[in-house]
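Researcher: Next sequence.
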Amino acid sequence: MSLIVRDATLEDAEEILAIYNYAAINTTAVWTDGPADLDSRRAWIRARQEAGYPVLVATKGRDVVGFASFGDFRPFPGYRHTVENSVYVDERHHRLGIGRGLLAALIDRANAMNKHAMIAGIDAANAGSIGLHGSLGFVEVARMPEVGCKFGRWLDLVFMQKRLASEVRP
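Model: Next structure:
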């Protein structure tokens, strides 16, 4: 069964929520202390799409096995050419190229939108995500010790950046 990456719809919200909540409850990929609800995921999808940003899902057959998006890096006009990505893969489908397919599609979308840079904020202990981003040309640009906490411990944040194929000028 081949992997298909496509734009998400509101009908995908339940499967997106399940993947997100697994990460939120069981990992440090999301620095939150509890699960989200379906209404908040639907609102997130709508808000991203209304802002002109992609929400993508990766499917195998009828199953959503991952999702990804990007949005504003920071809410100030000076950052308007920079976006920050999020990529999540169902834990039963890790290391099968799904995250790579989603991230590559996000990069293509950001290039099509004439964005200049894409940022990833990653838990420093998440070697899989750091490796994935590095394999697609992201480089570490900052490491911030003990700026978050979860599971009773401090977390370090790594920022990785990829300059895109933009022709935009400041």
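Model: The mean pLDDT is 97. The two ends are 44 Å apart (CA to CA).
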